[in-house]
Amino acid sequence: MTAPRLDIDLGAIAGNTRILVDRLAPVGIRVTGVSKALRGLPDVAEAMLRGGATGLGDSRVENLQRLRAGGVAAPLTLIRSPMLSQVEQAIRMSDTSLNTEPAVLAALSAAALNHGTTHGVVLMVELGDLREGIAADDVVSAALSVERLPGLTLAGLGTNLACQSGVVPDQRNMDDLSRLVEAVEAARGRTLSVVSGGNSANLAWALSSDDIGRIDELRLGESILLGTEPLHRNPIAGLRTDAFTLVGEVIEAKTKPARPWGEIAQASFGHQAPRRGGGTIRQAIVALGRQDADPDGLTPPEGITVLGMSSDHLVVDVGDHDVAVGDELAFGLDYSALVRAATSPFVTVSPHTAGQTRASRTGARAENGNSKEIPHH
C-alpha cells in the first residue's frame, strides 16, 4: 500500500453517527452530518447517512459537487455563506444555504429564478461568538425580506458558537435563539422548518438540558469523525476515537546526538527548536510534512515521540522500537491534523468498509514484503 495515506474506518463513522442520532432523537433533535473535513468524500457521507443523519452539510460548493457526482442522494446544505462569485453553483449543488448578507440573498434569488428552482435559506444569528451572524435586533426584518425574494424560501434560523471565540453553547444563548424563532414565526405567520442550534460543541448542552426550546437540528462533524467534543477535545463516552489513522513511511533510521550543535537560529517554520538532554537517541524520519498534517495534532505510537516537523520531514525519537527504513508508523489525529491530511494532495485517502479489522486493512506493505506497521494507541 502507498504512503502517506489516511486510513478511514467507515464502520466507526457510521457507528458514531448512529449513537449520536439515537441520543438526540428522544429530545427532538436531528443530525446533519458535516463532510467538510474530508472534502466531501462520498464514502464518508454515505457512512453518516447509514448511521441515521438526515442530511449533509459542507462549507464549499466544490465538496457538494463531489457528493453529487458520487451519487449521494440526500438533502445538501451549504454551511458557509455562498460567495457572490459562486451563487450559481450554490443553487445547483445545494438545497439550502446559510446566509447573513442581503446582497448574497438577492443574487441567490436571481440565480434560483434563472434555474427555475426554489432555494432554502437559513438565516444565521449572531449570539456572541463573533463569526457569521445577523444581529438579534435585525433578525425579524431580515426574515421578512427573504420572504419577499422570489425563488427563495425561508427554511429557518441557525447559529454557530465555539468556532471563532470559543463561546460555549448554553441555556441562555439557546433560549435566545428560540425566542427569535418565535418572533419570526409570529411576524410571518408560519412555522420554520429548521432551527439549527450549532455544531458538535452543542452536544453537552443538548443532552443535559431540561428544555431545548425550538432547537431541532445540529450540524455534527468532529464528534462523528473523531468521537470527541470540540470545547475541551475530550472523548465522548461510547464513541470510537480511532476512525482515522495517518500512516507514513520511514525514510531514515539512525542513532544521532540528542542535541543539535552550532549557532542556533529559527527553524524552518519560524520556531525555536526545543532544547533536549545530551547523549544519543534512535531517530527516524517519516515522509510526512506540514503540508500533510499539523504536527501538534498527531498522536504517535506508544513509546515514540515527535521531535519536529518541516515541510516534508517528520522527525521522531523511536525509543526502544525496532524501526527500519521502509517501515510504516501510524499516527492518530485531532481535527486540525485530520483536515490537513485529508486536503493534502500527497496523502492517499483510503476508506475501508465496515467490519474490516485493522490487521486486515493494514499490516505489511506489499511493495517490499518485509515491512511492518507500528500502530498508534
UniProtKB/TrEMBL annotation:
Q: Where is this region: Disordered?
A: 350-377
Q: Which UniProt keywords apply?
A: Isomerase, Pyridoxal phosphate
Put simply, this protein is called Predicted amino acid racemase
Which GO cellular component does the record give, naming just one?
cytosol
Q: What is the lineage of its organism?
A: Bacteria, Bacillati, Actinomycetota, Actinomycetes, Micrococcales
Cofactor(s) needed, names only, are: pyridoxal 5'-phosphate
Q: Which InterPro entries match?
A: Ala_racemase, Ala_racemase_N, PLP-binding_barrel
Ranges of biased composition (kind: Polar residues): 350-360
Q: Name one GO molecular function term.
A: pyridoxal phosphate binding
**Sequence ranges assigned to domain Alanine racemase N-terminal in this UniProt record:** 8-224
Species name: Herbiconiux ginsengi
Q: Which Pfam family name is an example for this entry? A: Ala_racemase_N
